[in-house]
Write a structure and sequence with these properties.
Elements: H1 15-34, H2 41-54, H3 60-69
Helix pairs in contact: 1-2, 1-3
Length: 70
């Protein structure tokens, strides 16, 4: 037996779901960055978008995507 290990399988996902998930991750990252911080939410959204566009691991969205795909 597998002793209850969960194996994640790659499945096809609709394009709309991919877009929705990307936007949700960007917003969540910006919200977490702005929480208890001097930076405005606008600055945090801008930073998150720039980091995600670069593919930087500083981006919450990129980190979560890599974590899910692992």
């Amino acid at each position: 037996g597998r002793a209850g290990t969960v194996r994640r399988l790659a499945v096809d996902v609709s394009p709309l779901r991919r877009v929705n998930q990307a936007i949700w991750l960007l917003c969540t990252g910006a919200r977490e960055a702005a929480f208890r911080n001097i930076k405005t939410i606008a600055e945090c959204v801008a930073d998150e978008l720039i980091n995600a566009a670069k593919g930087s691991s500083n981006s919450y969205a990129i980190k979560k995507k890599d974590e899910l795909e692992r």
